[in-house]
Amino acid sequence: MTLDQIKTLCRIVECGTLQKAAQSLHKTQPALSMSIKKLENEYGFQILTRDNYRLTLTKAGQSFYHKAQELLQSASQLSSLGEHLGEGNEAKIRLGYDAICPLTHILPILKRCQTQFPFTEIELIGGSRFSALDLLKKEEIDIAISPWWPTLYALGGLESLPVTHFSVILVATPELFPAHKRISISDLKQEVHIDVEASDLSFDTHDLILLKGCRQWRTKDAYTLKNMLVEGLGWGYIPEFMVEEELQSGELVKLKLNEIEHEISGEIRLIKRQECTLGPVSTMIWNEFV
Hints:
By secondary structure, this protein is an alpha/beta fold. It is built from ten helices and eleven strands.
């Protein structure tokens, strides 16, 4: 069996006659007949019949034809993939993002990337607490979208572009801390502080916790943190965009204290390793943020 034989079979079925198929393929009718005959002899069953003076598929031929269509589609995709890779485009790109960054800033760009480079696989890895930056330093992703502090320049070897700004706020349920009640640090220490686990980066340590001496529960991601806060299991800091609806409905309230920071804002950046040369697809994504 050859790919040319499969193409011939599919074109005959699509055109309905040998004459039309031969004209479409720029071949003679005897050549097409011989191609199908060889295919039938190879597998020992009749694929096409001339009943009622028209070429039609036999029952076995129908099953064979359906698989032949799938094979042609796969061959076409393989050919396109070969051309895509031959042009130097990446087969796969790994992007890491921190939950502090709204996906609304990322997904439209990935949509345009998918349209322009449909054969490049995109692996999007979400996390919290500098996890994207951690993966970038470990060379497990190609590009990170992460909160950025001026102190991160000390890590060295990083190149970055500004994307947007973030706001992290202190929240809890009104059952824990009524909105009208004046809250103090001692009040917070009566309840559980819920936080996400720290990354392996040297600067992301227990010392970053803004309030010491209280009970703590930890989770691995911001979305679990949100559910725990809404359930009233404790208080914590969370990206404001993640709880906008809960703040409007009153399920959560912002906590404000004079003794500690109740809102933290900063910059989100696109980050890559300086020694890493981006391929065409990665470059397209990078330039979309410029």
